[in-house]
């Protein structure tokens, strides 16, 4: 494993040698750290944070079962290193460009895109979601944010994001600065799904979108022929609802009026999970549309999700079976309201560059 100094300005992913895997990495085990460096994490691309952070390049596996590499940003709260839980937080990523990788977007010095029609800083940007991940840091947890598309920025690939997240946890457990904290890690994951597909209209990006190098040959065939092609049919099947049942308890929330991640699909997935014996806590949020659109509910529903995670981290009994409720808002739960109140303070301290956790 090699180390590199902190960069004063973040280079583009394409120009950054950190993401180039060393020769022979294929023979290493998944989760092996190939390279590391300390980084300065910024919130909203503008505000340097008081967070100890490093980036790890590690070996993982792609959707075809071949060796692959990905980067993660691992962070520790303020205070002495001691055994603490680890939260794996997967941010929203809606594109196949390297500048959208969390490891790039989180770095101080990453350029702000003022040409973006949705604004230079969007809710789908990891530099905005660090304000949610900071809640975990303020709880005293270590946090790992993986680049779920890997070094080639794959998008909507089956199994691969899971491999990358789990191997990112393995890498964090074996990273020297985190090792004393990682000995008794309680591993949890929080994943924010955007429910959207955004790709660049060039052939190279389209190929990376499905991780199919010969995708371009399908662009000129009729739609019916495209959908019935055995290769495409299998690719779509693999990218549909999960083909297996999770064995770990899950907390899931979705707005009834979510315009991006529609409730019907989530209902169907939860129904299948429950029919197969999974333990699922599912909250269907009924807030009026202005508060339960995809972006607002991701934020307003986070306090209840972090409350559930905290119960797991502190050893509360694991939920059994399925608990499905339609509620006015998960934010109205008393415990979630308490978390929401403390989270406001966390956000302010993060933006002001003050210490978190301990």
UniProtKB/TrEMBL annotation:
Pfam families according to UniProt: LIP
InterPro entries found in the cross-reference section: AB_hydrolase_fold, Lipase_secreted
Q: Which GO terms describe its biological process?
A: lipid catabolic process
Q: Which GO terms describe its molecular function?
A: triacylglycerol lipase activity
Q: What name does UniProt use for this protein? A: Uncharacterized protein
């Amino acid at each position: 494993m090699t180390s590199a100094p902190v960069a004063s300005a973040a280079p583009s992913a394409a120009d950054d040698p950190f993401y180039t895997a060393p020769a022979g990495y294929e023979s290493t085990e998944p989760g092996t750290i190939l390279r590391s460096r300390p980084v300065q994490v910024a919130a909203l691309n503008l505000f340097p944070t008081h967070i100890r952070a490093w980036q790890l390049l590690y070996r993982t596996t792609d959707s075809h079962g071949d060796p692959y590499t990905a980067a993660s940003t691992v962070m520790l709260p303020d205070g002495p290193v001691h055994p603490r839980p680890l939260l794996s937080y997967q941010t929203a990523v809606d594109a196949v460009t390297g500048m959208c990788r969390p490891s790039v977007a989180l770095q101080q010095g990453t350029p702000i895109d003022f040409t973006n029609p949705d604004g230079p800083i969007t809710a789908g940007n990891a530099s905005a979601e660090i304000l949610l991940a900071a809640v975990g840091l303020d709880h005293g947890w270590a946090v790992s944010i993986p680049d779920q598309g890997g070094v080639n920025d794959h998008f909507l690939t089956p199994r691969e994001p899971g491999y990358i997240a789990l191997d990112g946890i393995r890498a964090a457990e074996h990273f020297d600065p985190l090792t004393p904290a990682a000995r008794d890690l309680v591993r949890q994951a929080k994943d924010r799904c955007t429910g959207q597909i955004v790709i660049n209209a060039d052939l190279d990006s389209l190929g990376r979108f499905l991780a199919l190098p010969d995708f371009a040959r399908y662009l000129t065939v009729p739609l019916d022929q495209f959908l019935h092609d055995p290769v495409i049919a299998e690719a779509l099947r693999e990218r549909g609802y999960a083909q297996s049942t999770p064995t770990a308890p899950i907390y899931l929330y979705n707005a009834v009026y979510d315009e991006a991640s529609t409730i019907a699909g989530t209902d169907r997935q939860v129904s299948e999970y429950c029919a197969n014996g999974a333990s699922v806590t599912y909250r269907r949020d009924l807030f009026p549309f202005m508060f339960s659109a995809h972006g607002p509910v991701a934020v307003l529903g986070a306090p209840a999700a972090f409350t559930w995670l905290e119960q797991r981290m502190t050893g509360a009994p694991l939920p059994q079976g399925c608990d499905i409720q339609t509620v006015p808002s998960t934010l109205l739960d008393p415990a979630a309201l308490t978390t929401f109140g403390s989270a406001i303070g966390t956000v302010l301290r993060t933006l002001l560059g003050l210490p978190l956790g301990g």
